[in-house]
Design goal:
Elements: H1 2-7, H2 9-28, H3 36-58, H4 63-106
Region (Disordered): 88-107
Protein name: YlaH-like protein
Pfam families: YlaH
Length: 107
């Protein structure tokens, strides 16, 4: 896989850029959006930084594989957060339903 990615630098660059933007948006982005010029500047700097990572990828370092593992771990974390939120919501609903029945029986 490393050889194929080194032989196809455009695909490698697009993967690196996509992973970089995804990681930036999910980890480092502030809650509020930046003004459009600052947003463009940030993405241009990420594109330049991705060129540096592309050089390292072509030089046989596993940049894309490492970023893929990071993105997979972030997706697992997000899935776990959604599951916990769903579980707490359903537990809270079940607690309210059973709690109402117990209060009526105590009186």
């Amino acid at each position: 896989m490393q050889g194929w990615l080194s032989a196809n630098p455009l695909v490698s660059y697009l993967l690196i850029l996509g992973f970089t933007i995804y990681i930036f948006n999910n980890v480092f982005r502030a809650r509020q959006r930046l003004p459009i010029l600052k947003e463009v500047l940030v993405h241009v700097l990420m594109a330049i930084g991705s060129l540096v990572l592309l050089v390292l990828q072509i030089d046989k370092l596993p940049i894309i594989q490492s970023m893929a593992v990071a993105v997979a771990m972030m997706m697992l974390l997000r899935g776990r957060q959604l599951y916990d939120k769903w579980k707490n919501k359903s537990a809270g609903k079940a607690g309210r339903d059973s709690g109402a029945g117990q209060d009526a029986g105590d009186g």
